[in-house]
Amino acid sequence: MEWYQSEILWSLIKILVLFFLIITGAGYYTLMERKGAGYFQLRYGPNRAGIWGIFQPLADGIKFLLKQETLPKHVDVYLFLLAPAISVITAVLLWSTIPFTPLIDLPFEVLGKSQVALQVLNPGSGILLLFAISSLSVYGVMLAGWSSNNKYSLLGAVRSTAQMISYELSLSLSIIGVIMMAGHFDLYRIIEAQNENGWFFLSVPGFLGFFVFIVALFAETNRLPFDLAEAESELVVGFHTEYGAFKFALFFVAEYMNMITVSFLTVILFFGGWNIPFFLRDMVSGMWWGPLVGVLFFVFKAMFFMFLFIWVRWSLPRFRYDQLMNIGWKYLLPMALIQIFMAGIYLYLK
Amino acid sequence: MNPDKDIKSTASVTEKEMPGVIKTGTLPDGRMTINLGPSHPATHGILENHVILDGEKIEECIPVIGYVHRTFEKMGEHYGYNQFLVCTDRMNYISTPMNNIGWILAVENMLGIEVPAKVTVIRMIMSELSRIIDHIISMGILGVDLGAFASFLYMFHKREEVYDIIDKLTGARLTNTFCRVGGLERDVYPEFVKDVKYFLKTFPKVLKENDKLLTKSRIFYERTKDAGKISAQRALEYGFTGPNLRAAGVNFDVRVDNPYMFYDQVKFDIPVGETGAVYDRFLVRVEEMQQSMGIIRQLIDNIPEGSYHADVPHVYLPEKNKVYTSMEDLIYHFKIIMQGIKIPRGQFYSSTEAANGELAFTIISRGEKSPWRLRVRRPCFWYYQAFPELVKGGFLADAIANMSSLNVIAGELDG
Q1: What is the pLDDT of residue A280?
Q2: Euclidean distance between CA atoms B404 and A323, whole angstroms
Q3: Residues B251 and B225 sit within 8 Å (Cβ to Cβ)
Q4: Residue range B223-246: mean pLDDT, rounded
Q5: Are B392 and B61 in contact (CB under 8 A)?
Q6: Quick count: other Cβ atoms within 10 Å of Cβ A182?
Q7: Among residues B370, B364, B367, B336, which one has the least CA distance to residue B350?
Q8: Mean pLDDT, residues B316-345
Q9: Is the preceding peptide bond at B38 cis, omega within 30 degrees of 0?
Q10: Minimum distance, in Å, between the CA of residue B241 and any CA atom of chain A
Q11: Cβ-Cβ contacts under 8 Å, A78 against chain B
């Protein structure tokens, strides 16, 4: 075996590339959000660091790194420090399960396979692992609120925990239709199934599932109109009131990482991943750069959802706590169940 | 009023005694207390509320007022009548011209001065413009507190235009000390009519956007339709006035019921709500802005020609260049500066409809250069007493919506 056939080497390369992508991605997503917010609100947004504020994320990062790290006296130190780490770790782990490219042919074999894809983890359980990791991310918020020893933080954490647990249920149920139609948990197979049968979004159960999924995602990522955990007008900033400097930056970055990941996930589950729509598909089939175009489409589709997060945030007011619970349990959950039932009928008719 | 006296905080419990206890100030029965203010993002000013929470629900709310109390009423007893104008600037500081006009009208009533029609028309236009900018703040902040930031900024752009008008007219943006006893400080600037007309032309568009973003938003409606309901009876008992009273269903407006300036000669409707809830207050304010624009439209083309002050040399300061050249003016200047405006003995009351409600001044004069006793009826102070009742039993988030939709201005509240 040659040195370049080593699995470790390839994994390391993939990890480095993807880690770099998510870090810069999250950085530039914050810029996109601020620019977007600026345009929504008739102002410019950041435009001082470089042209169009292109270096703003860099400047922000340096600022957060160089700020004085403060540790309030009344906190539970270990949990206080652990919480942002949990948030970031789960966010990065989530990212590692997303497949970005179809399998690309290699001129040599790595561990008996001659194909490779830009994905760090490819577990057989696929999407199940993804949801398992995403459930863990609530610990970051919860521990932050608990260990901060601050009433606003505590209220924020309690809200957030209740919210994430109730919406996790709808979120997981909403993709069962997709899994039934694809017949597999594996994200590759889900995309492949859409390559053959068209996007799941266009089928009836898929459409319903998508609706539940996207609403639950907003709750899951703590974004407006579900950003009760950090409702700044009520709870100052909720669970991270006591955090400053880089510890705050970790929460901040984790939120944006999560949003990027779930945008990609939405595309994978309902919009055919790197599937190229319509006539373009025939044009690129068989070309060596075909997969590249697919990846471009993948990113553009995901960027639409990333923009959707911004769009919704700056347009809608926030829900109240009881309304949030009502929507979760009384509307989304039954809809998700109906969607599973419909997926069954869909498969039976097929 | 201080709840800390009755509340035994568990903060004295050490971590060893009760491991894992979050040492926040909880009541002995386990309910949590939380402070909304004095420095809290939702209070928009220095207000303090001790809130006792049961979960997310508010069981008790104890407001503590007086953080920005500046003893304006006492100061009024030492200042001259024109000097106190500066204090009225700092009461409701988001619609300053209205406060100024309220005070000036009170003094002019006492002196029995008839100002030229031009002055009154300009004052009415400024009055309605400041009603609009006041409502912009109240509605916009309500949106911000509910998480909808955009419509606030859309409207704030237009508010800046009004501020530009005020700036050009008076020389200051916020504390503009508009008017003097007996007229205006200076003549209106040449493009005044054009500027106001431009605002009237463009503002309805922004209101329409606001309608789409907030009024017709399902989330906004669900959030606000039940928050802070109050019956007309109860509102009257608390002494509500202005938009908050009208939202509760009482058709009362000083401009109509006790007309001053030319309000009996312009046509406008008074919007009246039903439930007194946050949504009704919001709708009443939106409609009032439309009506205010209607009033300005009727006036802006009919500004009469004439002097910008009444011919009352013993009250109104003469022009500076005349002071140096003319004997009479020098004497009047000296007398006004040194002795102030003399007001006959007696008790006087005058009220105007400010943006938040009935703004009234009671002046007891002993014929000196300043009032012997001055009392200001600040609308905010009267309706803020209802705040604990409005938020009791509601959610924490509703309390915030209530505070911004009542339009509690700390400066006006504390006086």
Answers
A1: 66
A2: 21
A3: no
A4: 88
A5: yes
A6: 23
A7: B364
A8: 88
A9: yes
A10: 27
A11: none
B217 contacts on A by Cβ (under 8 Å): 316-317
The pair of structure tokens assigned to B1 is 């009023």
Residue from the list A149, A155, A231 with its beta carbon closest to the beta carbon of B147:
A231
CB A146 to CB B214 under 8 A?
A: no
Asked if B32 lies within 8 A of A224 by C-beta distance, the reply is: no
Chain A interface disruption, residue of B14, B31, B33, B149, most A CBs within 10 A: B149
Buried b (16+ CB within 10 A) or exposed e, A286-318: eeeebbebbbebbbebbbebbebbbeebbbbbb
Quote the minimal CA–CA distance from A205 to chain B in Å: 26
The H or E element that residue A107 is part of is strand A104-110
Structural tokens at position A54? 């292109």
Q: Where would I find the beta strands (DSSP E) of B7-85?
A: 32-36, 48-54, 57-64
Q: What is the pTM of this model?
A: 0.85
Closest CA–CA distance from residue B277 to any residue of chain A (Å): 16
How far is residue B404 CA from its own chain's centroid?
A: 13
Q: Which residues of B touch A42 (CB under 8 A)?
A: 153-154, 157
Assess contact for B228 and B247: CB atoms under 8 A: no
Mean pLDDT of A205-229: 84
Strongest mean pLDDT among B22-26, B183-187, B195-199, B208-212 = B195-199
pLDDT at A49: 84
3-state secondary structure of B264: coil
CB A293, CB A103: distance < 8 Å: no
Instruction: Report the alpha-carbon distance of residue B90 to residue B175 in Å, rounded.
Output: 7
Q: Write the pLDDT tens digit of every residue in A12-32.
A: 888 888 888 888 888 899 898
Nearest to B123 by CA among B103, B93, B137, B140: B103
pLDDT for res B9? 42
Instruction: Note whether B222 contacts A323, CB cutoff 8 Å.
Output: yes
- By the 8 A CB rule, do B341 and B397 touch? no
pLDDT of residue B2 exceeding 60? no
- Give, in degrees to the nearest 5, the angle at Cα B162 between B159 and B166: 135
Mutation target vs A (from B26, B52, B56; most A CBs, 10 A cutoff): B56
Domain map of chain B by residue range? 3-64, 115-310+385-414
- B350 pLDDT higher than 50: yes
Residues of B within 8 A of A317 (CB-CB) are 143, 146-148, 214, 217, 219-220, 223
Residues of chain B that touch chain A, judged by Cβ-Cβ distance less than 8 Å: 22-25, 32, 34, 40-42, 56, 143-150, 153-154, 157, 213-214, 217, 219-220, 222-223, 395-398, 400
d(CA A332, CA B197): 49
Q: Are the beta carbons of B147 and A225 separated by less than 8 Å?
A: yes
B309: β partners: B183
Amino acid type, B176? N
Distance CA A344, CA A205 (A): 9
Fold held by B115-310+385-414: Cytochrome-c3 Hydrogenase; chain B (1.10.645)
Distance between CA atoms of residues B383 and B405, nearest Å: 12
The verdict on A66 touching B (C-beta cutoff 8 Å) is no
DSSP summary character for residue A238? G
Nearest one of A155, A159, A137, A213 to A323, comparing CA atoms: A159
Beta bridge partners of B351: B360
- DSSP H or E run through B373: strand B373-377
Q: For the residues A289-297, what does the mean pLDDT come to?
A: 77
